[in-house]
Structures are given as structure tokens and as C-alpha cells.
Design brief:
Order of helices and strands: HHHHHHHHH
Number of strands: 0
Number of helices: 9
Radius of gyration: 19 Å
Distance between the termini: 67 Å
């Protein structure tokens, strides 16, 4: 295995570990046992890559071809389960780890799609899917609105899209792959995601002309008045 390929492999395993931990620490307060936490960790860490591989008709699926992905995901989820019994994990930690996993998985998913011969547009889409699908499954299983669908001052999938577009634009002008490009694209995703949390960056809403959007309080009061 070359040095660059080894870098990608280690980064992929690190992304699996990070996303598995986010799946585990999303469980407190949900009355989920250790088996349920392990399942959350597995689907969060491996869900996006599985959807990508099936969509691109890549066989075997990454964790079937290399079971170390399974062991890393399970081990990380169990470790987080044990640690959470002694250390409180605030929501801020979940968001930071989720941003790190988003950055790692988006760029690695993009690279795998390009290596499989996918067109650039499809590869960028696979980058976003790889980055967000596992977290969407995690949020749905824990009864939360997926982060990618929330509009509360936070960019999410847009960050993955920006990093992927920068990667393909610069990569097309390089003679050979560069770990520095990978790190730079991942940094763009992570920093833009964290900036959106701190500064309240957001995309414009769909609003019909002449329509005033009710506040959350007004919407709740309207629901109470309806028969």
C-alpha cells in the first residue's frame, strides 16, 4: 500500500470511529441499551458508505470487503457507551464530532466515487450522500429531525457540497493526488460547518410573495385555536 493510499485508509477508519461515536452519544435519554447504542454507531458510521457503494454498484460493500470497518465502528460505539456513564457528553461535543465526520466522509466518498469512474457531478452527489446519510439515519432512529433538514441557522449538506466542489476544481489542475488537497477540502467543510453554528449562516427560505412567515410561537397558538 502506497503512502497516499495508507493515508486515505487511515482517514476512512478515523471517520468511521468519529461517526460511530456520534451515533452512540446521541443515545443518552432515549432509554437505549448497549445493543441499541452499537446499532446506532454502526448505521451512523457505515450507512452513508453503504448507500454510496450500492448506488455506484461497487461490490463488495466497503465493510463487507474489509471487516475492520465493522470492528472499528462497534468498538468506538461501545467505548463511547462506557465513557458516557462516567463523563457527560454535551450536545456541543456531538456537533463538533459530527462536523469532523462530515468533513472526512464527504471527501473520502468523493474520492471513491471518482476512482470508480463516476462523472464529476455524480461524484459530488456521492460526497454529500456519504457525509450526511449516516447522520440522517441516526437522527431518524433516535426520533430527531435530521440535521440536514433543519433550518435553524445551520448549514450542513451545503458545507459538504462546498468542500467537494473545491476538491474537484483543484484536483483537475493537479498532476497527481495530494494529501494536502484532501486536508484542505476537509478543513473547508469542517470550518464552514462550525462557522454556521457560531455565526448563524443559513440559506434563504422559500417564501411566497406577500406571505408573512409565522414565528414558532404564532404557529403553536394557531394550532391550538384550530378545532
Amino acid at each position: 500500500m502506497s503512502g497516499y493510499a495508507e493515508f486515505i485508509y487511515i482517514a476512512d477508519l478515523l471517520g468511521v470511529a468519529v461517526f460511530a461515536i456520534t451515533g452512540a452519544i446521541a443515545a443518552p435519554g432515549k432509554r437505549i441499551d448497549i445493543l441499541g447504542v452499537t446499532v446506532l454507531g454502526l448505521v451512523t458510521a457505515l450507512g452513508g458508505g453503504t448507500i454510496r457503494d450500492i448506488t455506484l454498484n461497487l461490490h463488495p460493500v466497503v465493510w463487507v470487503g474489509d471487516t475492520l470497518y465493522l470492528w472499528v465502528a462497534m468498538g468506538s460505539a461501545v467505548a463511547a457507551f462506557i465513557a458516557s456513564r462516567y463523563i457527560q457528553s454535551p450536545r456541543r461535543l456531538l456537533l463538533i464530532l459530527d462536523a469532523a465526520g462530515l468533513a472526512l466522509f464527504s471527501i473520502l466518498g468523493l474520492q471513491k466515487a471518482l476512482a470508480a469512474g463516476a462523472p464529476t457531478e455524480v461524484a459530488v452527489m456521492m460526497a454529500v450522500i456519504t457525509g450526511v446519510a449516516g447522520g440522517m439515519i441516526r437522527d431518524i432512529l433516535t426520533g430527531q429531525i435530521p440535521l440536514v433538514l433543519q433550518r435553524n441557522g445551520e448549514l450542513y449538506a451545503t458545507c459538504a457540497l462546498m468542500g467537494a466542489l473545491v476538491y474537484v476544481f483543484v484536483a483537475g489542475r493537479l498532476e497527481e493526488p495530494s494529501p494536502w488537497l484532501d486536508i484542505s477540502a476537509m478543513a473547508i467543510i469542517f470550518i464552514s460547518r462550525m462557522a454556521s453554528l457560531v455565526a448563524g449562516l443559513q440559506l434563504p427560505e422559500f417564501i411566497v410573495r406577500g406571505h408573512r412567515l409565522e414565528s414558532h410561537e404564532e404557529a403553536r397558538n394557531l394550532e391550538k385555536r384550530e378545532p
